[in-house]
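REQUEST FORM: STRUCTURE PREDICTION
Request ID: SP-0412
Submitted by: Lab K.M.
Chain count: 1
Length (residues): 430
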Amino acid sequence: ELIAAIDVTNPTHICLSNKSFDNGAAEKIAEYLKTLENVTVADISDIIAGRPEDEALRTLNIICSSLKKFNLTEVNLSDNALGAKGVEECKDVLLGDSLEKLFVCNNGLSAEEGELLAKIILREEGASEGSKVPVLKLFHFYNNMSGDGGAKAIARIVQACPELSDFRFSATRSTPVGCESIAAALATLPNLRRLDLCDNNFKGQAGALLVRALRSKSQLEYLNLRDDALQCGGHGEDGLTLFNALVEAAAAGSSLAHLDLSGNNFDAAAAEQLSRALEHLPGLTSFYMDDCEVGSKKGARHIAAVLKKLTNLRTLSLCTCEITASGAYILARAVAKLPNFVNLELNGNAICEAGVDAIRSVLQGAGKVLGDLEDNDEDGDDDLEDALAEFEAQDTAAEDDDEEEQLVAAFQQQALSSSKDSADGAKEEN
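STATUS: Completed
RESULT:
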């Protein structure tokens, strides 16, 4: 039925995802693939769910063997419970010289299986004579239980692929030992544009190596460091911080658009340092700093103060950041003035009921959206009046400034008129 439904002549993309194939179905797919010539993309993710091991391995072998003849540039093996045997059965699609994009996500790979994957890709095992290491430009390795051993294996792949521009290494159970290898490998990637390292452990030396790698990423556009055990303090003798590194990368030419620093050891002091760095990231469109001890009195204010310079910002997320009504209101007032802003996320904070109403009013009046507040604690401190009084004082001062400017302008106009009259009188006397 799947083959019968195909109405494309000689397709370049094959997607078999989210179907569980027995061996008979795999054979029919292989027969169909024999009739094709120009396939370059193969999505074979999630094709053996629920199958007995022997049948699953045979299905992988049949389909991967039939894809061997193509010059595949992209392969997706995600969501298949591979194990070492499964990796072996997929060898034919991993040994292609043209491979540029590889997805190995949610495959349950252990450290040993990660090492086997590295050996195949690096042509240390199973490759024919003259076979070249592929020039990977995208490599996603996510949700595998590979630990430190797997991290070291993946780092070897990264170091062998200097053209990588999109790298994801997340949720792998790696400790700082393995993350050190990953961070060191990142330093070898001059063209990195997208980097997703969420849910790792970059404490200590691993964090120091990561910060040093980021400072040279002059093309970085997307950075996800969520839940990485990072700290705001300086690393090494030069005291380089993550925020300093982002500034250096920006100075080198990066135009970071997406930044996620959620779930790290960042507090109000870190928010102050961060605010100074954000001034150098005018291209930012999405910024996430959830699950950090930002607070209202200092943290939220520091971030709000710099937002006026982020004119391209569309999304700001500070969920579960110990922010009360005053901080939330200051943030709402700040984003309401941004021309491209769309969505403010503040769920999981402690914003009192009056604060929620005030924030909604400000955002709705500016055509902006306040995200879901299902987990907000409306019993939080009712400190809204502090923020309202502060803005009232600012508005009054602004009105006084406007009045003074108008008086100065009127005086200047009067002086010009008097000068003109005097000049006209002098002309008439002559």
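NOTES: The longest strand covers residues 101-105.
Reviewed by: T.R.
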